[in-house]
Specification:
This protein has 3 helices and 8 strands. By secondary structure, it is α+β, with helices and mostly antiparallel strands. The chain starts with a helix and ends with a strand.
Length: about 140
């Protein structure tokens, strides 16, 4: 059973977006979800209870289930994330260097044809999605 696919098909029907999914050492699952307006503790409890029953029905074997919001430093995984968070500050690490650099922090200015535009120190850096190793929002206070 592909647990990620199961989550991608289940969470939207409950009104949530799957942000990320991790398997933990020892056979556990971590589910990070979001919805407009943010996630409450009650949301986490409700989804955790639903997934516990779903996993039982689907015979998904696991040791521990953790359900939470993605946090202020939310990971950016999909093209839609970059569209949604255009104008936000982000940290991006690339697989391969761009101009001899692999770590960038700047403001997302858009995405087109699979290439993220990031304004870094007054210049625009074009980063292909395929070259992004890890990306997160940078909280602003």
């Amino acid at each position: 059973m592909d647990v990620r696919l199961l989550l991608e098909n289940t969470l939207p029907g409950l009104g949530y977006e799957l942000v990320d999914f991790e398997m933990t050492p020892g056979g556990g699952f971590r589910v990070f979800m979001d919805k407009p307006g943010g996630i409450t503790v009650e949301d986490c409890v409700s989804v955790s209870n639903h997934l516990t029953r779903l996993f039982m029905v689907e015979n998904v074997d696991y040791e521990r289930l953790e359900v939470s919001s993605p946090g202020l430093d939310r990971p950016l995984k999909k093209e839609a994330d970059y569209v949604r968070f255009t104008g936000s500050l982000a940290k991006i690490r690339t697989r391969l260097p761009i101009d001899n650099q692999k770590r960038f922090q700047g403001r997302i200015t858009g995405i087109a044809d699979g290439v993220v535009s990031l304004e870094v120190d007054g210049r625009t850096v074009a980063i292909p999605l395929s070259n992004i190793d890890k990306a997160r929002l940078e909280p602003e206070f």
